[in-house]
Amino acid sequence: MAIACAISPSDPDELLAGALARDLDAAFERVVIAYRVRIVTFVTRMLRDDARAEDVAQDVFVRAYRALQTYPPDRRAALRLRSWLYAIAHNLTRHTVRYAPP
């Protein structure tokens, strides 16, 4: 009988978070590659505007990178990357909608 492990060492988010903890600059491109399409799609559904969604998504990754620069390595390693990026995307999209010119 096999026992399932609750924590999978092959979880992409955990692997990316660990890579960010070791070397932020080298690993961040992998984060963008892994999440760009998902974040753009998420923002597009909220804005219903492809061009604005691309701009907001780019800003999501700029803000994420700047925030990660201030985090110590142990905090980066423990980061729940997917939910953190989606929270940034949600907040920036709401801000964009709220302060968009009429």
* Major β-sheet annotation: none
Number of strands: 0
Taken as a percent bin, the fraction of beta residues is under 5%
Counted by DSSP, the helix tally is 5
Tell me, rounded to a whole number, the average pLDDT.
90
Given helix and strand content, the structural type is: mainly alpha
Sum up the structure in keywords:
about 100 residues, about 75% helix, elongated, mainly alpha, about 0% strand
What does this structure look like?
This protein has 102 residues and is mainly α. Helices cover 77% and strands 0% of the residues. The chain has five helices and no strands. The longest helix has 24 residues, at 24-47. The termini are far apart. 20% of the residues are buried. The mean pLDDT is 90.
Nutshell version of this structure?
With 102 residues, the chain is mostly helical.
Blueprint (SSEs and pairs):
Elements: H1 12-22, H2 24-47, H3 50-70, H4 73-77, H5 81-98
Helix pairs in contact: 1-2, 2-3, 2-5, 3-5
